[in-house]
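[Automated response] Your request has been received and processed.

Submitted sequence:
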Amino acid sequence: MTTPDLEIPESSLPVVDGRIYHLSVGTEELADYIIVVGDPERVPKVADQFLEKIEHDRSHRGLRTITGLTKNGGVRISIVTTGMGTPSLEIVVNELIALHELNLETRKPLNTPRSKKPLTIIRVGTSGAIRSGTALGTSIISAYSVGLDNTATYYDCPSNPVLDAIEEKVTTALRAAARPGSRFGSRLAPYASQAHPEVVAALEKVAVDNKIPYKVGVTASAAGFFANQGREIRPLLKVTVPNVDSVVGSVDLSDIKGICSPDLKIENLEMESATLFHICSMVGYRAGAVCCTVAQRRTGEFLDKQAEAVYNASKLAVDALVAIAQEDAKKGL
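Generated structure:
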């Protein structure tokens, strides 16, 4: 059964001078292989390090987009800012979908071979390690993500037994650890999402080939940086779940049937990947994430010189996209 397409009013998908509203990017300025980063200043840094030719460079509302060809392999990629947190990422990912699939003038499907090819999107970011044995600078490759926010819950994405089990375990742990009498403790409802296995495998292969320190694990996406990740800075700012980072990190996933590895643990906290995986899975896109650890939450350490760690994570993403693009070309995609 074919799903009927939508009548999209201008107010639902604003377009100004032929460019999508927030990113201010046109259809042909976006590549099929994309790196997304939270920090707009990271976009030109990654471009300088890994691109040999810049085709497009757009900046609007603090969102930077650069498209060009990689030094390694000459693959056309875009590097796009999402801003901090899942709410901002939700805006950007929807605009990427619209740029890829819709005629911006008519807001109707393009129905071209390229528009029917799935985008491949890898998030590169920083994160906090929530397990004691993880060294600062380690690249965490996400196999799954647990959303501690509610952004993706407004998208009715089908689940599966593995995601259901992860959600149940994390929900139980958070509610049990909530401060007694807290207003919201009993209402916490995390969701789980999965990175695309092709992206996970490509990232891991690049890490092994280049001897870059890494772990594959489950990432927790928080809705903010402070209370949402267990940070308390003033006595009046009471948190709903004390030490939420430790609570989430202690959840045991080893008995979940069908999980990609029984050794997977919740490794790190960041603020975007759960919604990225959730939305991309709904439209058949390949999404993944690699975030270097710059905070060690168990020891209290912080990595103030992050250039090497961010470079390594960026290299994993760029080289993984190149490998995926080359495999796609062999398949005629």
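Summary generated for your ticket: The radius of gyration is 20 Å. DSSP finds eight helices and 15 strands in the chain.
If you did not submit this request, please reply to this message.
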